[in-house]
Write a structure and sequence with these properties.
It is a single chain. It is globular, with a radius of gyration of 20 Å. It has 10 helices and 7 strands. It has a domain of about 160 residues: Rossmann fold (3-Layer(aba) Sandwich). Strands 3-2-1-4-5-7-6 form a 7-stranded mixed sheet, with helices on both faces. It has about 260 residues and is α/β, with parallel strands linked by helices. InterPro entries: Erg6_SMT_methyltransf (IPR050447), Methyltransf_11 (IPR013216), SAM-dependent_MTases_sf (IPR029063). GO terms for molecular function: S-adenosylmethionine-dependent methyltransferase activity. Pfam families: Methyltransf_11. Keywords: Methyltransferase, Transferase. This is SAM-dependent methyltransferase.
């Protein structure tokens, strides 16, 4: 289940890609299949081992093109173990809402991106997430759980403050929002027949990709899509400061 649009990310073969907070690797898998030089990063030991296992399986099955590479490392998003300006693309999907010092995480992403590089960040969308929080404390108030809900303007402000330029955005996973509302309403750890039935629907949609559910999600994403996705670029070069004594016309030209 992918949240980002790889065409908007403009991921091309040979690009070095970081999948930060990779979880069990879903975005890293797609980046690897597209020929990326992928580094998947997560703090969880289980997540690192699972992602490494499945990337190896993709390699053995011949599902990645020649030249594609992968690495899986355990790392902290507020202190990334990579040099400045060393990666072409960054994916940070459903992870920043877990990090207390998100400003440092954004700054680290900007640091490791090359000038002209691009990132895709996804977070739970404000409206659907607020409903989940209202229905259930257990949904978010646990170790490693969600500690904040981002509004779109706040997320864009965080990106801008880190020196990135926010661009296109969209929403994803509308069919998942009612599932989580239902799950939160009956209890996130409760074995409930309605929750099981809805989960079977989501699995069917994921595996079969039927026209009916795919069309429904495209229509509903702008309204109740559970995830917000924003793409942002690192400027290719810093704009020069105008020297003292220059004219307004010269300052305008320098800023272009």
């Amino acid at each position: 289940m992918l949240t980002i649009d790889y065409d908007r990310l403009d991921l091309r073969p040979g690009m070095r890609v970081l999948d930060l907070g990779c979880g069990e690797g879903r975005h890293a898998f797609e980046a690897y299949r597209r020929g990326g030089d992928v580094v998947a990063v997560d703090w969880g030991r289980h997540e690192v081992e699972t992602t490494k296992h499945w990337l190896g399986a993709i390699e053995k099955a011949g599902e990645a093109p020649d030249g594609a590479r992968y690495e899986v490392v355990r790392g902290d998003l507020t202190a990334l173990p990579f040099p400045d300006a060393s990666v072409d693309r960054v994916i940070a999907s459903e992870v920043l809402e877990h990090i207390p010092d998100d400003a440092t995480a954004f700054a680290e992403i900007a640091r490791v991106l090359k000038p002209g590089g691009r990132m895709a960040v996804t977070v739970p969308r404000y409206g659907p997430e607020r409903i989940c929080w209202a229905l259930s404390d257990a949904y978010h108030a646990n170790e490693g759980g969600h500690i904040r809900i981002y509004r779109s303007d706040v997320l864009r402000t965080r990106l801008t403050a880190a020196g990135l330029t926010p661009g296109a955005s969209h929403h994803a996973h509308a069919l998942h929002a009612p599932f989580w509302w239902l799950k939160c309403a009956v209890g996130v750890d409760t074995d409930n027949a309605a929750v099981r039935a809805y989960h079977r629907l989501l699995v069917w949609d994921l595996t079969k990709r039927p026209w009916l559910t795919r069309t429904a999600e495209r229509v509903l994403d702008p309204l109740i899509g559970k995830s917000l996705v924003v793409y942002a670029d690192k400027p290719a070069r810093e704009r020069p400061l105008a020297a003292a004594g220059t004219t307004d016309a010269e300052r305008t030209a320098a800023a272009r």
